[in-house]
Amino acid sequence: MTLDLSHEIELTPAFHDLDPMVVVWHGHYFKYFELARCALLQRFDYDFPQMHASGYHWPIVDLRAKYLRSAHYQQKLKVRARITEWEHRLRIDYQIRDAETALLLTRAHTIQVAVSVATGEMCYASPAVLLARLGLPTS
After folding, report:
1. Distance between terminal CA atoms of the chain?
2. 40 belongs to a structural domain
3. Is 105 within 8 Å of 68 (Cβ atoms)?
């Protein structure tokens, strides 16, 4: 059985998300990634409040995006977030597609690392709580 470590949300850019060229401003894509990432982590009951309660912060240490096509006002979008690495860090890959045509507009990824709330020290392996929440063996 393959474990599905992905989640998809739908959204529609509002007028206030546009830039002077009348397309979605590049910085708002990060907000869309954040919405998809939170929805994905909520699916595993390990969103930011649960992360903190388990003794870890998970700051983003790297974020990369590739803009292929512009998104527009009121264009229906699907934002997919998928966990692709979890052993030493948490990598989440994203795709933003047109909801009607499935045309790929943007792809990106974030990398997060576990940091102990108690000590402020970065962990060099993902804590067992992450693996347990994702339904993966904790070895």
Report:
1. 18
2. yes
3. yes
Q: Is pTM, for the whole model, over 0.85? A: yes
**Residue 1 belongs to some domain of the structure:** no
Q: Which amino acid is at 22?
A: V
Long-range CB contacts for residues 115-123, cutoff 8 Å, separation at least 24: 115/56, 115/57, 115/58, 115/59, 116/55, 116/56, 117/52, 117/55, 117/56, 117/57, 118/55, 123/56
Domain with 46 in it: what CATH number? 3.10.129.10
Residue 139 lies in a domain: no
One pLDDT digit (tens) per residue for the chain, 139 residues: 578 999 999 999 999 999 999 999 999 999 999 999 999 999 999 999 999 999 999 999 999 999 999 999 999 999 999 999 999 999 999 999 999 999 999 999 999 999 999 999 999 999 999 999 999 887 6
d(CA 64, CA 45): 26
